[in-house]
Amino acid sequence: MDAALTSASSATANPANYCDPPPFAIAAQDHSFTFYPGGADRLKALLSLIDEAQQSLQLCYYLFDRDTSGILVRDALVAAAARGVTVYLIVDDFGNDAGTAFFEPLTKAGGTFELFSPRWSTRYLVRNHQKLVIVDGTRVMTGGANVSDHYFSPPADNGWCDLSVVIEGPVVQQFTRWFGLLTGWVEDEAAGQTGKLRALRDIVKDWDGGDGPVQLLVGGPLVRHGHWAWQLRKDLLGARRLDTVSAYFSPPRSFRRQIAQVARRGMVRMMMPGKSDIDAAIDMARMLYKKLLDAGVQIVEFQPCKLHMKLLVVDDASYVGSANLDKRSLRVNVELMVRIEDAALAARLRKLIDHMEAASVPVTCEWYARKATLTNRIRWQMAYWMSLADYRISRVGAG
Questions:
Q1: 184: pLDDT confidence band, cut at 50, 70 and 90?
Q2: Band (314; pLDDT cuts 50, 70, 90)
Q3: Is the pTM of this model over 0.90?
Q4: What values do phi and psi take at 135, rounded to 5?
Q5: C-alpha torsion sign, points 235, 236, 239, 243
Q6: 3-class secondary structure for 66-121?
Q7: Which of 30, 117, 309, 325 is 20 to 30 Å from 284 at the Cα level?
Q8: Could you tell me if 198 and 15 are in contact, meaning their C-beta atoms sit under 8 angstroms apart?
Q9: Which helix (H) or strand (E) covers residue 110, if one does?
Q10: Domain spanning 208-398: which CATH class is it, in words?
Q11: pLDDT at 395
Q12: CATH 3.30.870.10 location in the chain
């Protein structure tokens, strides 16, 4: 697979020639990881997992669309339920673009469909941003991709550039345990119980991802210790190398300071979106470039298509999952990130970033000086603050 990636990279100097790399697998820390950078490969793998299920399917998505991909996935779930597989699907109410009636064939076939936080209240701003599929309690698929044609279309059609991973190994038991906690909260919410925001916060706060080399880390509203970002901060304390791919970048100032400190000690490479379906996502990030550049951070903007990937590599530790480096992922939304401490896997994921960087534009100090006109800086500032005040503007960032 490495040879295929190297060959593909030679064609990415022109973004119009960019192609998603093929899937690649790596064994690490008593686990098997198969990564899917390509949209068509992600959809094929998802449908295969559903078709191969024999006992149970546990799924959780932020966004589910009524389009070609959505119909394919729904119908595969219906077929699984019809053959006796226990199917339980949770979709976030805000991201349920398909509509509740779309899932009636699943419930009629014996499956369970639930909405995450459908009632208007203070907790409605807390969204379930996770994407996960657990098959028979033995395999899990997670990452940044929702169920929509946008996440499975090729770069030539301006599909989202994203990453999913199928995992086999002991950490799958953690996913099953986490899903059980989520379903309990969702069912209590559906029953109209009160005080649920505190209960959700406690579930996240009390979660133990373990201390081994492969951990399931989670995040949620107003939780500090135990949050996935808390572990990331600890990794950054003495780190000398950081590589990030983040579609939405607006972390707190303290987080940005830590990134700058890593750059001063060693090397930081950050990939930001050069294209998005909402300009504010790009504006938010650009407002924060200057101090990072001054600290020596290498920034590039991905050009071939819309960027949706969530990937962090800190020295020998890799994070892959649902979280962006923005305030919603760090402080509000329910998130999950798998942390894998393995040097060979980290090196392999950096090769993926190398491939993407070849189709990206370097953000230099000179580039920034040309872009940072007074008019642009005002627009960037407005986008930054509006994204915090109005959830709808952050919706793509929660995708």
A1: very high
A2: very high
A3: yes
A4: -110, 115
A5: positive
A6: CCHHHHHHHHHHHHHHHCCCEEEEEEECCCCCCCHHHHHHHHHCCCEEEEECCCCC
A7: 117
A8: no
A9: none
A10: alpha beta
A11: 46
A12: 20-199, 208-398
